Amino acid sequence: MKPRLFASLLLAGSLTLGAAPASAEVENYVIDTKNAHAFVQFKISHLGYSWLIGQFNRFEGQFSYDPQDPAAASVEVTIDTASLDSNHAERDKHLRSNDFLDVGKYPEARFVSKKYSEQADGKGVLEGDLTLHGVTRPVTIETRAIGHGPDPWGGYRRGFEGTTTLVLKDFGIDYDLGPASREVELFLSIEGVRQK
User: Fold this and answer.
1) Rounded to an integer, what is the distance from CA 44 to the centroid of its chain?
2) Max CA distance (Å), the chain
3) 83/56 Cα distance (integer angstroms)
4) SS3 at position 150
5) Model's pTM, two decimal places?
6) From CA 44, how far away is CA 152, in angstroms rounded?
7) Measured distance CA(14)–CA(97) in Å, rounded
8) Mean pLDDT of 30-49
9) For residues 41-66, average pLDDT
10) How far is CA 79 from CA 32, 83, 133, in A?
């Protein structure tokens, strides 16, 4: 092969490779609970007349996300069940007791994702296993991407929200609160800081 032709082929090949889009790397995030930019809240009917609303004040977790392949996303969250807070000390004491969460025996709840699907509008479905009150069951969380981008401190953030409904008896919590209070709604607001 003539040197000039060989050089031309090399140049063409290098230009073709340079034009190929680079595959995005998976982004790893730590959920920003330190600065209160993430929440795990719950809502349960009170006798069918109003709502009892509260949250867990201590939890931690991380997630990974590939903008070019959202289905590869994964999430892990661990909740300190004793951090339950419904803004009423006596009620919180009861909810932490063995009538409900039994936090002395089950100090943590944990969610580990298994599957994620996302639509073009940012809405998605996250499936995984939730361990609560010593019972592990599959749950489905409806999610929505909130936004992503640089922050004022030189970092990069990405946020999601999600909702799901749990049947208390499915997790061995069978204290009778009446037919209107057999399910609890969970709302999650998650903001992660990308790791370098």
Assistant:
1) 20
2) 88
3) 5
4) strand
5) 0.85
6) 37
7) 67
8) 96
9) 96
10) 14, 8, 12
β-strand pairing of 74-80 with 50-56 = unpaired
Residue type, 179: P
Q: Are 85 and 57 in contact (CB under 8 A)?
A: yes
Please tell me the distance from the alpha carbon of residue 156 to that of residue 39, in angstroms, as a whole number: 19
DSSP code, position 4: H
Which sequence spans correspond to the domains of the chain?
21-194
Confidence band (pLDDT; 50, 70, 90) for 156?
A: very high
Half-sphere exposure of 89 (CA within 13 A, CB side): 0
Where does 21-194 sit in CATH, by number? 2.40.128.110
Does residue 9 have a pLDDT over 70? no
Residue 41: closest CA among 195, 189, 146:
189
Q: Which residues pair with 165 in a beta bridge?
A: 185
CA neighbor of 106 nearest in space, from 126, 133, 85: 133
Give CA–CA dist 89/58, Å, rounded: 17
**Which positions ≥6 away from 92 have C-beta within 8 Å?**
54, 84, 85, 86
Strands (E) located in 22-73: 27-31, 39-46, 50-56, 59-65
Q: How far apart are CA 55 and CA 40, in angstroms?
A: 6
For residues 45 and 41, give the distance between their C-alpha atoms in angstroms, rounded to a whole number: 14
